[in-house]
Amino acid sequence: ISVKTIVAKTEKFNLEHPVEKVYLQFDKPYYAVGDTVWFKVYITMDVHIPSNISKVVYVDILNSKDSIVQKLKLPVLGSTAFGDILLNKPLYKQDNYHIRAYTNWMRNSDAAYFFNKTIPVGNGVDKDVITNATITGLVKSGNAKIDAIIHYNTPDGRAYSGRKVSWKIQSTDDETLGKGKETTDALGNANITFTTKKTDGLNTAMLVTSLDLDNKSSNNSFSLKHVGAPMDVQIFPEGGDLINGIKNRVAFKAIKPNGLGIDVKGTITDNTGAVVATIASQHLGMGVFELQPENGKTYKASITFPDGTQNNYNLPAAKNNGMTINVSNADPEKVIITYYASDEFFQANRNKTIGTVGQVGQIICYGTQIPLVTKAWSRSVLKSSLTSGIVKFTIFAPNGDALAERSVFVQRDDQLKIDLKTEKTSYAPRQKVTVNVSAKKAAAPSEANLSVTVIDETKVPYDENSETTILTSLLLTSDLKGYVEKPNYYFNNPNDKTKADLDVLMLTQGYTRFLYKDILANRIPAVKFKPEDGITISGTLRTALAMPISKGIVNFSIKDKYVFLHTVTNPVGEFRFSKMFFPDSVSAVLDAKGSINSNNLMIMIDSDPYLPPTINNTAPDEIANIDTALVAYLKNNKQQTINSHVLKEVVIKDKVFEKKPSHDDYPSLMGLSSIPDQQIAGTSLIACTNVFECLRAMTAGLVYDDGQMYVRRGHTTGDSSTPVAIYYNGLPVDFNFLSSIDPKDVESVEIFLSDGVSGVNRNTGTKGIIVVNAKKVNKPKMTQDQIKALLASMANSSTSFSPKGYTMPRAFYNPKYTVAGNSPIGGDLRSTVYWSPRVITDKATGNATFEYFNADAKGSYRVIIEGIDADGNIGRTVYRYKVQ
Q1: The predicted structure's pLDDT at residue 779
Q2: Strand order of the sheet with strand 189-196?
Q3: On the chain, which terminus has fewer CB atoms closer than 10 Å, C or N?
């Protein structure tokens, strides 16, 4: 199989299955409850070309328990979108949230390549207790021992000493694995020790504590994720395999249970006990050593961790027959590939052609084939023929099998150059700042689509090496499976050390988006999800006997938005309305008026395919102790809240008791307990798009799985697959029906984990009950004309529903201080001083301008601008100035 064939098939595959990437720029790296998250979405294809495939992008917010809290659907214009997330209670609380973003087309590929980011959210308001937890564990011989030190202090730093602390270990199915009581010492520390034989599920359990504060208690929860899991070391021979008789470079990566790297040292010994190499990690637990394996010998790594513990790890067995490569990326002008063939492979394939293909993203950038006439040779690839990013070099046998593979990262000076300038380097509080932007590519002006954030970094301190940027995402992490720690370290200040560390990262991080074996065998992946060009509503028109109606008329309307459309069904009764644009939370109607015998027809609406929680590749970025890690930010956020609230006079008067709607109102639910296991007030649902989304995230003791709700206890352990019963105003409904209920119409939601003596579960084959109670509406008596109009509307089959529309972005508030001193200095405590998702440079000059007013705080202000031009050139610049 020639290289030409490999290239041709790969290019055909890439043309038919283009890859989209999504990147989100946020205004800040972390937030507080009550904040607004501002973000912009960039969608690219090929080598960062703005994508014209998808016109809709999804942004999901999941909490640390992998429950979907909110789903945003955004329109894509010019390959970009922008939006915001209001972190209001009760939907949001202090937690680490997982943001994932994707298009419908991207769902045809591995979800590992979605955009993923962990964003911590703290809460410094109305908080009497600040906690800091240190939790360690050891699992040995089926027993787990957990040691925890929980520190409690007041917001102003005074220790809560001599206070009683009650604690329990709670599993995900609400089982209590252990409990006890402690008393804090003079430093405010509660020392908790816990042992259990129930190690299954301990990784998802929580340590729940209650601190006695005399007239009340403070409850806190601490995750036991990764507690007791061992540290690990992974071994990666360069090229993929160790070959006997050939000196190989071997990389390794040592990680802690939480997925972060840990520096280690050790030795490599053979099966005779002889030491053949000494090793030590060079960056974030990663390192490399050389080894020439010998036939008949095995090898192991003896690793010593910082705490003194030791462990042994076997190296992969070496092969006698095969090829490997060594790639040198140190030269700034070229990549040098050295090929090595074993004696056995050389004798079997002498004078046959060996192929090499280099690929950046979906672009074939290098291809060659040469006859095998020697067991070792080298070739150079000029970096000027490559673009910045991950280049995967694959070596092919004469029959087309991949023999070895190596990824390298090429860093060229080929990014979009973005310059920022201000009139001064120092400004006063509330002074107007004008920023001039210049975007160029190879010294030529560029029309770039940019987004900019200005933050007071005194209030928002952050490790720049840990940032997610347009460069780290599109050039690096979007093409790698797994977690990359401190990705901006490799871009923030490139030098020989960072380049060497980046090369070790390439040796340890697999690049597995495409498999040549599948491409050459014409194994084409199934396309289940098509690109979207707007909002689509589809379904089927059927008779009362479920027979599809051909050439039936279906009408779609949103009266408030003056949307009136109609279509005709196909031969199997299907209808589709596409390329629509309307906001979320609208009330829409589908009817069959105009169809023959329309009063006996049914309209079946297709539901959006549900995407369950996926692996969060950035989970190691979660902050265990948010209270202390974000102390500066939360302190400022609390002061902002105090400044923005004025207490008003409160007058307490007697009030006549008013009975609220509940399950007691419905005979079908008689026998349920008078006290639900959980009750959610309707006011808590206001921030949700619909009741369907709220209940998936807010129900305690229940879990959502594949379109159904289940009692968590039992279902998570696989003991029960029986869903809960769902009632709306006393009538049984399915879970999807809740998507049509406006949260503003709900009085309360009652959760029952058992049916008491009602017999509901026994009669319906369910387990547990959700009761949704609508608000009482005092309706006036209908006139005769109104009754006639109602009957006329019912004569034609119709259905009202609330389709998932676009989440419309809000405008970022920019205060204007036109007169100096017009309000007391000190009240403007903004941490995000300015945000704009749309800064467009002029096509002829490459220039743009934006302006804003400083806040009151003095210190260092950080301007971050990044974006992309029409040719796929990406860039980012950070600019700082002083406010004093």
Answers
A1: 61
A2: 130-140, 143-153, 189-196
A3: C
For the purposes of burial, counting CB atoms within 10 Å of the CB of 274, is it exposed (0-12), middle (13-18) or buried (19 or more)?
A: exposed
d(CA 676, CA 458) in angstroms, rounded, equals: 47
Predicted confidence (pLDDT) per residue in 330-381, tens digit? 999 999 999 999 999 999 999 999 999 999 988 899 999 999 999 999 999 9
> Band of the pLDDT at 175, cuts 50, 70, 90?
confident
Residue 143, CA atoms < 13 Å, CB-side half-sphere: 4
Q: What are phi and psi of 165, to 5 degrees?
A: -130, 120
The three-state secondary structure class of 378 is: strand
Instruction: Specify the pLDDT at position 730.
Output: 87
The strand pairing partners of 118, in sequence order, are 98
Closest C-alpha among 501, 78, 469 to residue 253: 501
Locate tokens 């160029």: which residue?
440
Q: Which amino acid is at 716?
A: T
Distance (Å, whole) CA 333 – CA 412: 9
Per-chain mean pLDDT for the chain? 90
pLDDT of residue 825: 65
- Its pTM stands at 0.85
**What contacts 850, CB < 8 A, 6 or more positions away?**
434, 435, 437, 452, 834, 836, 839
Judged by DSSP in three states, 387 sits in coil
Contact status, residue 806 vs residue 583, Cβ threshold 8 Å: yes
d(CA 568, CA 510): 50
Q: What's the rounded Cα separation, in Å, for the pair 580 and 524?
A: 31
- Amino acid occupying residue 878: V
Peptide bond into 90 cis (omega under 30): yes
Contact assessment for residue 196 and residue 177, using Cβ atoms and an 8 Å cutoff: yes
Two tokens at 172? 């995900």
Looking at the DSSP assignment, which residues form a beta bridge with residue 406? Answer: 393
Helix (H) or strand (E) holding 524: none
Backbone angles phi, psi at 151, to 5 degrees: -100, 130
642 phi, psi to nearest 5 deg? -65, -40
Would you place residue 511 in the very low, low, confident or very high pLDDT band (cuts 50, 70, 90)?
A: low
Cβ neighbour number for residue 312 with a 10 Å cutoff: 11
Token pair 């593979």 in the structure block, residue? 405
Instruction: Give the chain's largest Cα–Cα span.
Output: 100
Residue 66 CA to residue 59 CA, distance in Å, equals 15
**Which pLDDT does position 127 carry in this prediction?**
87
Q: Is the pLDDT of residue 794 over 70?
A: no
Q: Where are the alpha helices (DSSP H) in 50-119?
A: none
- Is residue 528 within 8 Å of 560, Cβ to Cβ? no
| Three-point CA angle 344, 346, 348, nearest 5° | 70
| CA separation for the pair 851, 563 (Å, rounded) | 38
Residues linked to residue 771 through DSSP beta bridges, in sequence order: 727, 750
Pairing label, strands 874-883, 859-869: antiparallel
User: What per-residue confidence (pLDDT) applies to 234?
Assistant: 94
Q: Which of 781, 777, 760 is nearest to 769 (CA)?
A: 760
Tell me the two tokens of residue 325: 């490569």
287-343 pLDDT per residue, tens: 999 999 999 999 999 999 998 999 999 999 999 999 999 999 999 999 999 999 999
Specify which residues 280 forms β-bridges with: 265
Q: Looking at the chain, how many residues does it have?
A: 884
Secondary structure (3-state) at 14: helix
Min mean pLDDT across 184-193, 431-440, 650-659, 670-679 is at 650-659
Please give the pLDDT value at position 497: 96
Report in angstroms the alpha-carbon separations of 495 from 417, 514, 784. Answer: 19, 31, 83
Cβ proximity of 253 and 286 under 8 Å: yes
Nearest to 701 by CA among 712, 715, 714, 716: 712
Spatial separation of the C-alpha atoms in residues 371 and 351, rounded to whole Å: 5
CA distance 112 to 106: 10
